[in-house]
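Cross-check.
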Amino acid sequence: MFGIADYGAFVAAIILFLAIPGPGNLALITSTGKGGVRAGLAAAFGVIAGDQVLMWAAVAGVAALLAAYPAAFHAVQWLGAAYLAWLGFKMLTAKPGDAPVLRIEPRHYFKQGAIITLLNPKAIVFYMAFFPLFVDPARHQGMATFGVMAATIAALTFLYSLIVVLLTHHLAERMRANPAIARALERLAGVFLIGFGVKLAISR
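Predicted model, tokenized:
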């Protein structure tokens, strides 16, 4: 289909990729918890924008460039690791009354979602290594192929994000009644983020 090798498998891979816990999901959940559905959707569009940048960067040959210059790839890894660990540390050390790690002003939701996605090791690996495997060299149709892939990724990401945002909004109403639970979940999220950062930093 449009030069995509096994479109069904491509869709399944995207869904699996979205469902794996990571910083992108955290951005959706945190933004929704802080600012409601509108904030969650703004973060979702930021995630989608970040995905598109990574995908088209792979199309432009960044994957080949990073493969030819391993030092550049390791620099990207360390940048992502440092950013994730910093977010995790801020969540762990935050005190009641402190400004949230993910800014609550509406103008920041989109930007935060995009930045987290661009520095998300899961997304980088997928678009730079796994994503090109679905391009069929024999039936490739140029920009049409990549356009269909980009549209598919954006549509699936939006649907997934919408489900996450609505569920989070429903649960957030209950969490507000018990601040201790919300604080415990924030600390847990901080631990996971630091873990993501460490894993990325030591990966080869």
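The mean pLDDT is 75. DSSP finds eight helices and no strands in the chain. Passed to J.P. for a second look.
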